[in-house]
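Example record

The entry below shows one chain as it appears in the dataset: sequence first, then structure tokens.
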Amino acid sequence: MLRRNTLTLLVLALLIASTLQIAQPARAADLVIGFVLVGPQNDKGWSEAHFRASEYLKTKVPGVKTIVIDKVNPADRPNLKLEQVVENMKEEGAKIIFTTSDDFGAETLDVAKKYKDITFIHVSGDAVLKGEAPANLGNLMGRIEPMKMIAGCAAILQSEKNSIAYLGPLINDETRRLANSVYLGAKYCLTQYKKGKAEDLKFEVKWIGFWFNIPGVTLDPTEVTNSFYNGGADVVISGIDTTEAIVVAGQRAAKGEKVYAIPYDYQGACEQAAKVCLGVPYFNWGPSYVKIVTGIQAGTYKSAWDWVGPDWKDLNSVDTSNVGFVMGDGLSADNKASVNKFIAELGSGKLNLYTGALNYQDGSAYLKDKEVATDSQVWYAKQLLEGIKGDSQPPKK
């Protein structure tokens, strides 16, 4: 009997020990982070760039769990409000939420005031700059302006007609300054590398009315792009979230036309029609996401307006450069060499194209002679620049 009881106790002890070995130690709770995307997460443009960065974040910061809600826009989800999305993310444990569209500005400010236990990062607003943001709201934007200048340079160098067009989304300070940046890059490279005259540059902007096509609400970007080519432009530069410009260029080139395009936002956008792609200025949100999230974890992050630029030493580094420019297959070898020289000039800090004298479209002074624009002057672009054809203000309702 004693042996039997001893054996039973031994078996029980082994079972308990085995159970203790199998059981995993309690891990720290995941850090749940929400991402609200205005478009589809696979749009090959703005929203996909954010989605890819959310995946990158998980590889760099242990314990991060992400919740991604895409297509938060009037066409795909007409009755969905940002507050509903935030409430659902909060129920899933979200402590940080990135709202990734200028279109979310007012709503992000409202939810930040209501949900004070969540840190909100709005891309690409300026509530902090205006002094309107509560302590749990920060702003983030990539300093894409130099990359847009590079796009303008590539476009004018490859153009045989000195006629380039810009496919714009809606009209606001952000979209005006980006169109202006493209124009400044094109004008500089026309005069400095192509040895042309500034007045020979034909630069037209048309706005579709939103960041991407909403049938029945916006202009159709496919139709607008075709109208550019039909009107004599041989390069179209996209400023919208999606890839219609490069797709149309590829279709027309397949029929024998000598046309090119430059997409926007997403590093891999040239894949849509590589042979006619001159390059792509794109956002790489990963480094900023990591910096902000680790700062929040460490308790060192403070509400800030972060306008982050490129790593000029390694422009396309996935780990260090917040924006970049990838050369396209459609750009000739000679023009690539010239674009690289232009990049070197910009990267040296000696060349600043936001230097006067520059006028606005209506002839009023933007920058006086030799005046260098402040960040605020660049950020708040009141009009398109003199020399650009197109509307500077949205239509009156």
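Notes for this example: The CA atoms of residues 5 and 274 lie 78 Å apart. The domain at 145-282+323-379 is CATH 3.40.50.2300 (Rossmann fold).
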